[in-house]
Task: structure prediction
Amino acid sequence: MGWRQESRDESLSDVTRIEVNYSQPAWKRFMAFLGPGALVAVGYMDPGNWATSIAGGSAYGYTLLSMVLISSLMAIYLQALSARLGIATGRDLAQACRDHFSKPTGILLWLSAEVAIIATDLAEVIGTAIALNLLFGLPLIIGVCLTVADVLLILLLQNKGFKYIEALVITLIATIAVAFLFEMIFSKPELAPLLGGLVPSR
Result:
């Protein structure tokens, strides 16, 4: 089954179309991709992942680092495949699935994606609530309400243009990077066990 000849979904034009002026210097062309790249990266550097990683590290030390490495390599590979799909066809993964598969299969894939989104969002909400509890002593229910409020704030920013969301996400990623740097300085991890944890073991 070939690609449908209908026009692309204009609702995603801000996300899927990046204007690049090839007369500009290379660093300026790179900056055009920085915002969308940050939106992808934030999926791997969120409160839910941090809470899970800290809990796993406190229980198993460096043993699970090999799983982090393997899953990260898998994520990079899948993102690269999705990028190549977009470059080659001008369509995102959801549009390609809709065009290639039958309607029942498309509905099944959509439901699977929705379940995955719900599962990951639950981890984000709980992770954020736990972080607020640890930092400020807020009750978990208050942390959950604040998390819902910041989601609504991001949706409000989306109506004003995707550049605002990109700026917010880049700021949050920079904050996480600084926090991670200080954690590394304060925890002083041992290099030999850390490198050993990157090798799968029983």
About this structure: The mean pLDDT is 81.
